[in-house]
């Protein structure tokens, strides 16, 4: 998790904890407990600061909760296998690791990338394949990349029988240069 994400989550957690702490202070008389935490009314400046703070913090959490529900409802479901053939005796499924292995095999056959990272996401009607890595310097890189995409699409359609819409994204992280041996200079 990134530092910015951690910072935002910690700040939101602190706001939530203070709101809940003030709720506990205000409602501690509802239970007959042996301990008494004190009253908020005893502190004069809290009477002016506390109501707007509680209102704004509660409003913030209501809006965030509503947006979270909308995002959860709108987020597409991700599947963990593709059903290829459903017969009377069972069904045949393909997992993302099998598709990753096929894409990696095509990559090594074409010698297009080194140190590649392949990520497969399966949705109901779509298959997303992201390939990131260091491209090997060669001629006609764009044509070879397009040929690689076509080979993956046709291979998945014929070999696996996948009829989903396939989105294949190839991202180049860096050029993979062959290291030249360094010969020390002799004088």
TrEMBL record:
Instruction: Give the transmembrane ranges.
Output: 7-25, 53-75
Query: What keyword terms does UniProt attach to this protein?
Result: Membrane, Transmembrane, Transmembrane helix
Superkingdom, taxonomy of origin: Bacteria
The protein's name in its UniProt record: Alkaline shock response membrane anchor protein AmaP
Organism encoding this protein: Lactococcus hircilactis
